[in-house]
Write a structure and sequence with these properties.
Layout lengths: L4 E5 L16 H13 L4 E3 L38 H10 L8 H22 L2 H13 L1 H17 L14 H10 L2 H34 L3 E6 L8 H5 L4 E9 L9 H6 L1 E8 L1 H5 L4 H11 L4 E4 L8 E4 L6 H4 L4 H8 L5 E3 L6 H22 L4 E3 L9 H8 L3 E3 L21 E3 L9 H14 L6 H17 L14 H12 L5 E5 H4 L28 H4 L1 H11 L7 H4 L2
Parallel strand pairs: 1-2, 1-12, 2-3, 3-6, 6-9, 10-11, 11-12
Antiparallel strand pairs: 4-5, 4-7, 7-8
Helix pairs in contact: 1-7, 4-5, 5-7, 11-14, 14-15, 16-17, 18-21
């Protein structure tokens, strides 16, 4: 970590490629890598790429192993079995726009993938067919269950397996049902099995290929490991003993995220089941090791989502669908509905020294498993939120970089901790995928500082001005000289320069912040079409001309950060 590295956070779905089907994919990422290389970027940070649920959240996984088919490039150059005429027609018919239409994109990509699979199994050469068969054999442990689950999900048109017929609600029952099939019905099911295996083979081949391409270009990929999986995932369906299904993971109420009245009162109820760590320990955490081994093929570094949850995680005794039943209730009233259980930390609350010691030991042991698989320099710990005092010293001892968001790193007087004082083993960034863009943050502060003229708003006005001054000072400028105007390129350059000057090993800027756009990718605690759908207005090929001023300002200051050494990039 001797050399500092600058990079960009890019949700893959937000990329617009040259031959776009309505969502960013491997082909668009390849374009982004070429662009990143030309600008001196050291890395591209991505959101999770695993198979998501019907809400399309990359953090609500239906499989910890399978890859999202929508990330596949269906260009005949990348998937030679796709008929060129069919692909060309799909590109011409694809709907443009600044948001992802998942229904349209899914239908379009599925038609291309199904055509490719049919052609492959009819005409594939022996060598290519043998490669596919080897993949099926090597990945059998998870792939067989996934293919069965994905097929049943298609049949029943829902991943909510509680609503499936009783014989399909467990993997044992589904296997028995499968063995009982005969004739045309059995042939049809086997064909769908084969299709889902083919799609995963293609996905993994394309991702490992683009990873090699990135490293040859001198730009490596950072991946993401979500804190949980969906309660309706194939993992829970096939291995329910590895999870605690009576509790729902989340986060306690925080000042930063108060998207609605429930979140403000109770916190975020994500809905993921908790892990049964004792059951996982019986085979030396094979589920986790296998998961990391898969992602390690593609990513040189993995961001561990909500690393605090490995120490202790906030748990609800009710599902998110029941949230409204508890809105406005007192603790006593809520406990009366749950048989005495209330939201709290598991395994222990941090209310005693003994509990804190136990939680520390718990987290250190579990993160140690991840370090064993990824090696030194292979993990980033997302340590944001209400951070217990023992977490960051533990991460430092283990050599795991945590996050440094300047707005959240404060001195006692409220000023920002200077970036020069950040530990080298850290990643500095102004925002993650969960935060508003810099443009929105800045403009809202300016509005408060300049438009709240009424005396009763004096405190809000003063606080906003102090926040702007603290941010300006963090960037090496005189706080009294902060410009009280709407966000522009001069302000952007100062903010980026402040970030690049941090001592952190990695410095990341969101693609929406780099281009000073107003897109927001996710609002925690909310659901709806506004999340995980926003796209960058211009295609990658247009970035140099469309955002030329932003890129010039950024590139000059990026020269202060050296690229990742080859010895580290090859780990």
């Amino acid at each position: 970590m001797e050399h500092r590295v600058g990079g960009v956070l890019v949700p893959l779905f937000a990329l617009c490629g040259e031959n776009d089907l309505g969502i960013g994919d491997i082909a668009a990422l390849r374009e982004g890598i070429r662009w990143a290389k030309s600008k001196g970027l050291g890395f591209i940070q991505l959101l999770p790429i695993n198979y998501p649920g019907s809400d399309h959240s990359p953090y609500n996984l239906l499989s910890s192993m399978a890859i999202d088919p929508l990330t596949i490039s269906c260009h005949p150059r990348d998937l030679p079995e796709v008929p060129f005429e069919l692909w060309e027609r799909s590109v011409k018919e694809a709907r443009g726009g600044d948001t992802v239409d998942y229904g349209e994109v899914t239908r379009r990509k599925n038609s291309l993938l199904e055509a490719a699979a049919e052609a492959f199994f009819e005409r594939a050469k022996k060598g290519r067919l043998a490669e596919f068969e080897r993949f099926v054999s090597v990945e059998r442990e998870w792939l067989e269950d996934f293919a069965l689950y994905a097929t049943l999900r298609e049949i029943h048109k829902t991943e909510v397996f509680d609503a499936w017929p009783s014989e399909h609600r467990s993997v044992e029952g589904a296997r028995h049902w499968l063995e009982s099939l005969k004739g045309a019905e059995a042939d049809a099911i086997k064909k769908r099995f084969r299709f889902h295996k083919f799609v995963q083979w293609v996905a993994i081949k394309q991702w490992t290929s683009v990873s090699r391409f990135a490293e040859k270009s001198g730009t490596f990929l950072i991946g993401d490991v979500p804190v949980g999986v969906s309660i309706y995932s194939v993992d829970v369906w096939a291995n329910p003993q590895l999870f605690r299904l009576d509790l729902s993971s989340g986060a306690p109420p925080e000042k930063v995220f108060q998207a609605d009245s429930f979140t403000a009162q109770w916190g975020q109820n994500w809905g993921f089941p908790l892990y049964n760590w004792y059951a996982m320990s019986k085979d030396n955490f094979r589920w986790w090791r296998r998961r990391l081994q898969m992602l390690r093929r593609i990513f040189r570094i993995l961001r561990v989502d909500h690393a605090l949850g490995f120490f202790r995680i906030y748990a609800f005794p009710w599902r998110p669908e029941q949230n409204q039943e508890f809105l406005g209730l007192s603790l006593e009233e809520a406990a009366a509905k749950t048989g005495g259980r209330l939201p709290g930390f598991v395994p222990y609350n941090d209310d005693t020294e003994e509990n804190r010691r136990r939680n520390l030991q718990h987290g250190e042991t579990l993160l140690g498993i991840l370090v064993e698989e990824m090696g030194a320099g292979g993990l980033i710990a997302e340590d944001l939120g209400e951070v217990p005092p023992y977490v960051r010293p533990c991460l430092a001892r283990m050599g795991l970089p945590g996050f440094k968001i300047p707005q959240w790193e404060r001195l006692p007087n409220g000023r920002f901790i200077p970036g020069s004082e950040y530990p080298r083993v850290s990643i500095a960034t102004y925002a993650t995928h969960d935060h508003p863009p810099l443009r929105q943050i800045w403009d809202e502060l300016v509005d408060k500082a300049t438009k709240l003229t009424n005396e009763k708003n004096k405190t809000l006005r003063d606080n906003a001005l102090e926040e702007l001054q603290a941010l300006w000072e963090f960037c090496g400028e005189k706080p009294e000289g902060v410009p009280l105007r709407r966000f522009d390129l001069k302000i952007l350059r100062v903010l980026l320069r402040g970030l690049w000057k941090c001592n952190s090993w990695l410095a990341a800027v969101g693609i929406n912040d780099l281009f000073a756009t107003s897109q927001r990718f996710n609002v925690p605690g909310t659901s709806g079409n506004q999340n995980w759908t926003a796209r960058i207005e211009a295609s990658v090929s247009q970035w140099n001309s469309r955002y030329s001023a932003e890129i010039r300002a950024w590139s000059r200051d990026l020269k202060t950060i050296r690229p990742l050494p080859k010895t580290l990039a090859s780990k």
